[in-house]
Amino acid sequence: MDPSPGAGTPLLHSAPPSPDLLSISPTITSRTPKRDPRVIRAVAICVVAVLIIEIGDFMRKAPFTRMLEDTVCRAHFTSLPTVKRWEPEIPEEDCKIGPVQAKLAMLRGWDLAFSSVPAIFTAVPYSALADKVGRKLVLFLAVAGIILSISWVIAAVFLQVTAVSLVAVVIGVPLAWHLMKTSVWTPMLLGLLLPLIGAILIPLLPDTLEMIKSKDNSYDPLPEHENATEDDSLLSRNDSSDESLPLSRKGLRSILQRIEDSKFVFATPTLCILAFSWLVSNIDTTMLQYLFQLSSERFQWTLAEASFLFPLTAIINFVVLIAILPGIYYLLTKYFSPITITNDLVVIRGSIIFLILSSLGTAFSGVPALLILSTLLFPLGVGFAPALRSLLTSLSPPTHTSRLYGVLAVLDTLGSLVFALAMGQAYSIGTKWGVHYYT
């Protein structure tokens, strides 16, 4: 029994971390990971696959927008009595007028919004299936969905993977600009072929799920949690009862159970607040979608020329993710705090400041130099999403990572849905106010 406290009893005890803290943030403890060859191979294949798929994606952006603009432009001019539908293609510079650009912005906003709807219903089931049947199959299904969505349109560790997708911008945009000189369909079709090539690499991935489970056997993130026994008994009862169910009902019940387990994100106030902050993690991508349309209309650039803003931001993004952010984390760890969570918060707050300054500069850019300067400032806030994801991952048990990412995917999609519609409507209203007032 502990002695009664007295005048000489210290106020602070040098006690080990409490089990509750470890259950919320197990990754705070210092554990040096070993380099597993399977992990290295998985990262390498993911990097190459993402690079190929992203090149195709950025090759489609400018020609797809140009195709939409041409369609809207034809619909606008064919409504006039002096223009007929069989006349030659309308020059792009003639389409930089308010009514055409307003309708184009609305179409792109609805396109981004509708493309986000399926992810709302598939994010959590996909994360549950990833834990159930393996991540390689689920990743292949996701890539197949991307390819099928592209075909439909034509017919009718965080920093590294994020950085390599930016290399695709530098390659894909200039290549699309060159191919668009002949036809907008050439980069569109090539953009469909590249994801097919990237999908071929997916079966070569080693499934890391079993490796993570084997590591978790030697490390229990909830060693003394008072509800652990109840949860284990509940899961065991569910598993035993599932044996008598058909395969389809068993799979549905498993997915529903995983969705129920994902509620841990909203059970902790800190995780809940940070998770809802993830709603705006994709706003920079949404803004960049309208950036080259804005510059094309405001400064009378062609869409192919304006699309060079993408590689410009991608180069700076790449430098920030590969050199500047790791350097900032190194300095913060050495001179500020050795705790990763604290450093993530500093990076998140600094990134938000740069995003706000860049957005204001873009909104009031009356000359190309100011727009380009604001564009160069924008990538300095690219650390927001990786740092926030790292913070959320650090605050969650390792065995719940897939479920956490499923919740984040739903929130990300909801944010994209809302901001796509809001920015499309705002852009459309801005064009009606005048070229000097819209954003």
Account of the protein in words:
It comes from Cudoniella acicularis. Its main location: membrane. Residues 1-32, 218-246 are annotated as: Disordered. 73% of the residues lie in helices and 0% in strands. The protein is mostly helical. The chain has a single domain (36-212, 248-433), classed as Growth Hormone, Chain: A (Up-down Bundle), CATH 1.20.1250. The termini are far apart. Residues 1-33, 81-87, 147-158 and 218-247 have low confidence and may be disordered.
- According to CATH, the fold-level topology is Growth Hormone, Chain: A
Main sheet summary: none
Radius of gyration in whole Å, from Cα? 25 Å
Q: Can you write the helix and strand succession as a string?
A: HHHHHHHHHHHHHHHHHH
Could you name the CATH homologous superfamily? MFS general substrate transporter like domains
CATH class equals: Mainly Alpha
Total number of domains: 1
| SSE class | mainly alpha
**Cα separation of the termini:** 68 Å
Mean pLDDT across the residues is 68
Percent of residues in beta strands: under 5%
Silhouette:
globular
Number of helices: 18
Runs with pLDDT <50, length 5+? 1-33, 81-87, 147-158, 218-247
Strand count: 0
